[in-house]
Hints:
It is a single chain. By secondary structure, the chain is α/β, with parallel strands linked by helices. Helix content is about 25%, strand content about 20%. Strand 1 (about 25) and strand 2 (about 35) form a beta hairpin. Helix 2 crosses helix 5 and helix 4 (about 160-165) packs across helix 5 (about 180-190). The chain is elongated.
Amino acid sequence: MAVPTNTAPTNTVPPSTASIDDEVVDGGPLGAVSSATIEADVRLTVNGTTHRLTVEARRNLVDVLRRDLGLNGTQVGCDTGACGSCTVLMGGEPVRSCLVLAAQADGASIETVESLAPDGILGPLQEAFREKFALQCGFCTAGFLMLGTALLRQEPDADRDRIREWVSANLCRCTGYSTIIDAIEAAAQAGHRLPLDTTPREEASEIGAERSA
């Protein structure tokens, strides 16, 4: 498993290049501009619950998670994919949700930091972060928790050097990283395998039409 990096996948279009409200037609930027908004119907399974939404095609995944689904644990930091604060798991792999368009995630299984604390009870990795003082301002914490979750699922016996390699993908301005590494290492040593949540839950929420009305 390759270490996550702070570069966008080659098939990911940064929202900064796709966030123009108007559709450009007739030969590119010098052509006529239409005022029509392009929309997409998407189906997302987020933390085990399926949602069907109609969203503007230009919107990124983190925006939909926060504004449409109310999952505000995922933070918006740089909005360019550099910091990793918006890291979520898509198909079990860590991705920068500010660099993934919601339409690109159609049909995908998404996990956010809220999935780590079902019923409001902290999960083992969160407890390790608390015990090791692996957060200060807390803004980047959700991204590191999801990064650590992906690592411990794939490499439950990861050593300190491997953990350090993984966490280098995200930025923290407060802790100096040492306590974050301590926390993930402690969770690994405690044998927390952090299995994928496969509990079937169907909400079938219809979101989007009423928002654009």
